[in-house]
């Protein structure tokens, strides 16, 4: 487990002890620190087309088209034959988050979902595995006879993008494929709201089974909201799930508006904190907010400039560490905000995945807290029940920096961890 930021020697724990056995790639539930995520496994395919390609396949230009298996196969086979595919990207909001977490933490995570039992060289499934960190344990994926999801981006000669979405078997994950022990020993469970769309598919029942296990074993649940339209359509159900199971919600400003009815990000966060322990809210060029609760007696005042918005002096206690409301006798709300790192990249290559990158940083800090508590239980770091290792302000910095890295590249998945020189730009994580 890598810890983000520079730390004083007294906060380290033994890392040079003799290893009695070789490391294993598969997660060992009672020995490893890891997070678990459930996702619709999908591969994003980018290809250029010309002529009447779209018309021949019945694809409406400039729109998102849901296509059946045979149409998707015909499109894909023709693109391969004519060598028109420029990129394959392993996709899925949770798949991206788990990959980035494992890159940042250099540690294990577990992906729950489906995968084709027969994988051929060069197939979308092959690319999904190739573009996912080896630290992501895929041994708990459920095998299916057909394809996983394919999201094909077709770029016509005028530069316009058209989408052909083929769900394949990505929603066929069954409740029986969920291993209770894997969830019971996780540092956190992360999922998205997308499976809620599929009441008639097994994946929704599988998600609910996971949530039951997290509740039974007191595992923090992190939920990403997907899209504004999804939240608008399933708002009441999402709020009920949040209130019953969820510890942390991750969303952007549009999803926050759809969820709470409040357009101002701070006020939306204030409303959502009545339902959850913590939330991560990305607000585009405005930066990001990290909000949550801490015990009144444990609050720590910021030394950063005080900020006011819809809530006066809202960041006053941002040097506090996050706690779950049920672990506080007198919980108070804490708000932290950070502007885009260095004003944001000069050139944004791809906005896809920036929020997932920020979430992976938060998950890293939650898992680091879990790991440190297991390794050094008598540390002063654990004189209370904390959800994360660092303060709200420091997690903000880390999440912001990871988002910057994602925005600077052409993929929602990190190819490597943050540059080592970043340590010189950050304060010691536990100094704050």
Automatic annotation (TrEMBL):
Q: Which GO terms describe its molecular function?
A: kinase activity
- Keyword terms: ATP-binding, Kinase, Magnesium, Nucleotide-binding, Purine salvage, Transferase
Q: In which pathway does it act?
A: Purine metabolism; IMP biosynthesis via salvage pathway; IMP from inosine: step 1/1; Purine metabolism; GMP biosynthesis via salvage pathway
- EC number(s) reported in the record: 2.7.1.73
Q: Which reaction does it catalyse?
A: inosine + ATP = IMP + ADP + H(+); guanosine + ATP = GMP + ADP + H(+)
Where, by residue number, does GMP bind? 39-44, 92-96, 197
| Enzyme kind, highest EC tier | transferase
Disordered: region residues: 412-432
Q: Which domain of life is it from?
A: Bacteria
Ranges of biased composition (kind: Acidic residues): 423-432
Query: InterPro entries this protein is in?
Result: IngK (IPR046405), PfkB_Carbo_kinase (IPR050306), PfkB_dom (IPR011611), Ribokinase-like (IPR029056)
Protein name (record): Guanosine-inosine kinase
Source organism of the structure: Rhodanobacter aciditrophus
Gene designation per UniProt: gsk
């Amino acid at each position: 487990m890598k810890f983000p930021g520079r730390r004083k020697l007294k906060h380290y724990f033994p890392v040079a002890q003799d290893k009695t056995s070789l490391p294993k790639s598969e997660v060992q539930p009672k020995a490893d620190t890891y997070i678990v995520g459930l996702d619709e496994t999908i591969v994003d395919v980018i290809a250029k087309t010309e002529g009447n390609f779209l018309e021949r396949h019945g694809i409406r230009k400039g729109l998102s088209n849901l296509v059946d298996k045979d149409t998707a196969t015909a499109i894909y086979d023709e693109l391969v034959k004519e060598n028109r595919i420029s990129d394959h990207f392993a996709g899925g909001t949770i798949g991206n988050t788990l990959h980035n977490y494992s890159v940042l933490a250099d540690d294990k995570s577990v992906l729950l979902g489906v995968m084709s039992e027969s994988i051929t060289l060069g197939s979308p499934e092959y690319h999904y595995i190739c573009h996912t960190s080896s630290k992501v344990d895929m041994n708990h994926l459920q095998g299916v006879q057909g394809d996983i999801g394919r999201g094909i981006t077709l770029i016509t000669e005028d530069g316009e993008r058209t989408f052909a979405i083929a769900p394949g078997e990505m929603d066929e994950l069954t409740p029986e494929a969920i291993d209770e022990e894997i969830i019971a020993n996780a540092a956190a469970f992360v999922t998205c709201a997308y499976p809620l769309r599929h009441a008639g598919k097994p994946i929704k029942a599988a998600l609910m089974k996971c949530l039951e296990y997290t509740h039974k074993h007191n595992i923090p649940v992190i939920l990403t909201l997907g899209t504004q339209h999804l939240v608008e359509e399933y708002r009441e159900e999402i709020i009920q799930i949040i209130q019953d199971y969820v510890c942390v919600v991750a969303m952007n400003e549009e999803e926050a508006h759809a969820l709470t009815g409040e357009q101002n990000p701070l006020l939306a966060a204030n409303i959502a904190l009545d339902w959850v322990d913590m939330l991560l809210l990305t607000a585009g060029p405005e930066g990001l907010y990290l909000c949550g609760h801490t015990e009144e007696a444990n609050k720590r005042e910021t030394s950063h400039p005080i900020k006011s918005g819809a809530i006066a002096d809202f960041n006053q206690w941002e040097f506090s560490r996050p706690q779950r409301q049920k672990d506080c006798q007198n919980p108070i709300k804490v708000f932290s905000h950070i502007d885009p790192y260095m004003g944001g990249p000069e050139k944004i290559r791809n906005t896809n995945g920036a929020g997932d990158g920020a979430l992976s940083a938060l998950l890293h800090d939650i898992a680091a807290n879990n790991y440190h508590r297991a390794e050094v239980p008598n540390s002063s770091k654990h004189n209370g029940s904390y959800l994360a290792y660092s303060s709200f302000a420091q997690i903000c910095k880390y999440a912001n920096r990871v988002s910057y890295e994602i925005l600077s590249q052409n993929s929602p998945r990190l190819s490597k961890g943050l540059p080592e020189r970043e340590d010189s730009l950050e304060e010691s994580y536990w100094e704050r």
